Every structure is written in C-alpha cells, then in structure tokens.
Amino acid sequence: MKLGYLGPVGSYSNILTEKHFKTSEYTLHPHSEIRRLFENLDNGDIDLAIIPIRNSTFGQVKESAAEIARREDLIKLEEYQLKVEHCLVARAGTKLENIRLVSSHEQALGQCEKYLTNKKINQRIKASSTANATERLSNVDQIEGLDISECASICSETCAGLFDNLIILEHAIQDNKDNTTTFHLMTNKKLERPQGDKLLDHKNDIFNL
Prior knowledge:
By secondary structure, the chain is α/β, with parallel strands linked by helices. Helix content is 25%, strand content 33%. Keywords: Amino-acid biosynthesis, Aromatic amino acid biosynthesis, Lyase, Phenylalanine biosynthesis.
C-alpha cells in the first residue's frame, strides 16, 4: 500500500510514520504540503495518509481541518499520539543571544510561543513543515534579509541531526512539557487488509471534524 505523510524526512509526521509503518506492506511517500496529501488521496496516487489533526498545546491543525471540511468520503482507520519535543536549531557557530528570526511550521511556532517571547525572538516565519524550515536554514545564507547567523528553526532532535552544519542551541523548548500531537490514519476507499497487518482490524468510521 502507498502511504503518504507530510515530509520531508525528519518531520514529526515522518518520525511517526517510520515508527508504525516501516514494513514491507507499505511504501512511504513524503509530501511537501498537507494539501497535496489530500489531493493524492483524491486521485488515487496514495492509498492511505497520516494526517496531523490537533495538538494538546496549540489546538487544531488548520490545514488539515480545511481539507477535511471539503470532503465527505474520508474514513479514519486509526489514531496515534506522538509526544513532541522541539529544539531550537541554528547554523554551527551561532549564539543564542544573536537570534532574531525563527522559522517553522505554524504549529511548532505556536507550541513554543512563550519560549520565543521570553527570548525576544520576535520575527516568525511560517513554513510548510518543521523539516522544510530546517532544510532551508541549512542551505541559505540569508532569510528575510537577515544573515543566517541571526536565524534559527524549530524542529525535532532527529531532524536537526540530519544536517552536518546545524547545531541544537536548546532542547525541549515547547511551552508544555507534555506536548502531544494527534494523527489520524485516513483513506477514502474500502481497503483490503494486508496479510498480517493489525492496523486495519478496527471497525472503520467516518471522521467528522
């Protein structure tokens, strides 16, 4: 089965997907945007999608809610909880006191609002995912006219470790130490259960947000 998730590698969706679906029954397909996940479900390019639904600190994932509201044929197969711990990441040699701008997914920015305010990091740039923001930080010399030594991203420790030129300035910067995101495994078709797979044993139910 083809399973889509919000990528790239290192995103929280990727971490959850690798944990639960890295078997011979599935081929994993990263997507650059949540919108593209739903579009590829619609056109049959993927059979299943891992969708971030809500966070215990910052609430509903707006992009997911908007896409779900446009469709009547979605089926929730399973629900997952992922504890989310954010890191503040910057280029090697950067000092925390010099950071003026941070980029990440809207959810990550919201989950770290108190921390960012306390550190007086006032310029926030939204990205399609935490991993995309971090990949950009690794590859460019400036963001929004600021030198890269004044910029940071918010992502997982796993994501930060993918880039040799990045360092973690601080760990566990989320405002709520029990910060958790709920994901749904979703489809829009009746699927035959793969042999040996237990995820689809549960009775399917239509998901209404």
